[in-house]
Amino acid sequence: MPSILNVANMCSHLQNASKARLGITSVKNCKFNLHLAMALHRSGFFSSVYRAGPNPPTPEQMVSAVPEVVTNANVSTMRLWLGLKYWEGKPVLSNARAISTPKRVLTADIQELGRLTRGFPTKLKGGVVPGLNLGECMFVATSRGVLESREAVARKTGGVLMCRVS
Amino acid sequence: MSVARPARSLLGRCLSSTRTTPAITCQQLHTSAPRSSRKSRFRNVKAEELGLLRPEKMDKFQKATFPEYTAEEKETLKAKYSPEQLEALEAGEKAVDPKDMIIQGRLRDDPYKPDYIEDYTVLDPRYDLKPTLESTPKEVHWPDQSEWIDNYGQKMMKITDKKTSDQLTRAMVRAMRKVKESTGQELIDLTADELNDIEADPELIKRYVIEEKVPEAEATATGPEFMTRAQAMELDEAIDTEWKKELSKIAEFSNQGEVEPTSLELLEDGPAGFDRLHSAEAADLGKVPGVKGLYKHAADPEDMGQDDAGKFQEIKRLTGMSLKDIRSLLTKGLVTRWVANQTRLGKVRSTSVVAIAGNGNGRLGLGMAKSTEPGVAEETAQMLAIRNMKPIRRYENRTIYGDVSAKVSGTVVELMARPPGFGLRCPHRIFEMCRAAGIHDIAARIPRSKNPMNSVKAAYQALTNQPDPEQIAIGRGKKLVDVRKVYYGGAVY
């Protein structure tokens, strides 16, 4: 089972990459990272998500080519390649912070998640979590996969709070 | 000790005294082959060897290059020069020995050699000293504009008239010359040289033509070559046709430069006139008209006597606002600090003021000024604040977009959007800023350092750096909806 620590690493790496104005970056290929990357892509933070070997794929490849099949032989070399977005000289994704840590996993039920999404600070079992600000997104690991908090509220599922991104 | 020693080195010590080259050989510092000795590569040929110094040869050369004046030449010189000048010439000739000239003198063939066939009417800067001209500085006359324009126009007209008449005269002269050359008859009185002179300087026509007209009339009466009427008609016609040809040429290939005034003529029109030409010292300036009327600090009639001191003139010009608008702005000094500049003469105390200005409707500016006079500092800071006014983004014209925070040094200011009717529940400086900017609902927190100046700066930064939902939506490619607006069916601002 992959650790949720990978998400924390991914968050800080994404912040660094966007500060450096990189067009494409890669993170470790694991389940949490992949699902989070897909959720971020759905929310419009990434231009593309692609799983490939150690060499960076071209932007065209990321959009059109069928990704390489993962086998036992190549799984260790696989990376998740993420296309970063910029608008008017500013990164679309500039802040990414992990919420849960392996030691302090924060979960929110539907009510709590609703309050958080509406922007109110909410006391959870592990501590108080500030509500979402303008333009902020929170990603929740639910039984239906990693969802944006608004999606999760719409589907009426709670789960582990992974990270907040803006 | 080795026995196998070359004999040369054994004898070297004895031979060394006789050697001319030093025992230590000089190290070669370049790769080219050394030259055996410093000798000219060309054999010197002396004048003696060529036989040039033989007396008969020198005499021949002297006769060819520096001959004595012949009797005829002396006669012509006498005709040209006065006896004193002639004497001076002879003395000059005697002073220089032609032998010296042959041996020591060098005939110049460089391009700068003086050309002695001249009458010294023109200064040549290559070998003539510049004469010191006595220029007379005079009182400068400053004409007013209409007077100047009148004078200038008249002058230009005069110049153009004169140039045009000169041009026509030149054309006439050319026509006459052509007729003279073609007919070959001596019907025209003027010689070719005279015609040339007139063409070079059309002023001369007065001298040649008008002065000679009177005696000409007498001459024609008594002279043997009396011009018949037919001849005169013929001549007139010939000149007429040539003249027309010349005129058409002028019209076709008209060189405007010929008629236009030269730079010298234009210079003459300057304030110092021709004096500028010669004198580096400009003439006395005289009484300069002064700056009366150039500076407009007097009251603007638009202000209705509200700003007689002209305090708001500059700010009006910079912002383009009327005095009434500027007066209606909310300005306030928020922070006053007493600062001192430590010099060797002691502390120079002054007041530093940070002021804000806002129109109460979404514009806010920050100004900072320092002066030894507190009043001046305050006023200047307020003016600067008015100049620096920037639009502040407001949500529903009452609060800010989301929560923003800014940090200046150790001061962090957090501003939070609040619902309608919440009011301004914030520190007093931020309260003033919000009031000036037209924000009515806000909460603020200064969790760390509460430095007055930094908190004002940080609050201004936070207010001007609010996120823009439109831009976020475009960046993510998502549709962002204001839920409040949807809930109230758009019945909000």
Please summarize what this structure is.
Chain A: Keywords: Ribonucleoprotein, Ribosomal protein. Helix content of chain A is 29%, strand content 29%. Chain A is of the alpha+beta class.
Furnish the topology, listing elements before pairings.
The complex is a heterodimer of chains A (166) and B (493).
Chain A: H1 5-19, E1 24-28, H2 31-42, E2 46-52, H3 59-64, E3 79-84, E4 86-87, E5 90-91, E6 96-98, E7 107-108, H4 110-118, E8 122-123, E9 128-129, E10 137-142, E11 145-148, H5 149-154, E12 159-165
Antiparallel strand pairs in A: 1-3, 2-3, 4-5, 6-12, 7-12, 8-9, 10-11, 10-12
Chain B: H1 7-15, H2 47-50, H3 55-65, H4 71-80, H5 83-95, H6 98-103, H7 145-183, H8 192-200, H9 204-222, H10 229-252, H11 256-259, H12 263-267, H13 275-278, H14 313-319, H15 323-328, E1 330-343, E2 346-358, E3 363-371, H16 374-387, E4 390-391, E5 404-408, E6 411-417, E7 424-425, H17 428-437, E8 442-445, H18 452-464, H19 469-476, H20 483-487
Parallel strand pairs in B: 7-8
Antiparallel strand pairs in B: 1-2, 2-3, 3-4, 5-6, 6-8
Average pLDDT rating of chain B = 81
**Most extensive interface, chain pair and sizes:** A-B, 11 and 14 residues
Q: What is the strand tally of chain B?
A: 8
Measured on Cα atoms, how large is the radius of gyration of chain B? 49 Å
Extract low-pLDDT stretches of chain A. Answer: none
Per DSSP, the total helix count of chain B is 20
- Helix coverage percent of chain A: 25-40%
Strand order of the largest sheet of chain B: 1-2-3-4
**What about the largest sheet of chain B?**
4 strands, antiparallel
Class of secondary structure makeup of chain B: alpha+beta
Name the beta content range of chain B.
5-15%
Q: What is the structural class of chain A?
A: alpha+beta
Domain S5 DRBM (chain B): 329-392
GO cellular component, one term (chain B): ribosome
Pfam families (chain B): Ribosomal_S5 (PF00333), Ribosomal_S5_C (PF03719)
Family (chain B): Belongs to the universal ribosomal protein uS5 family.
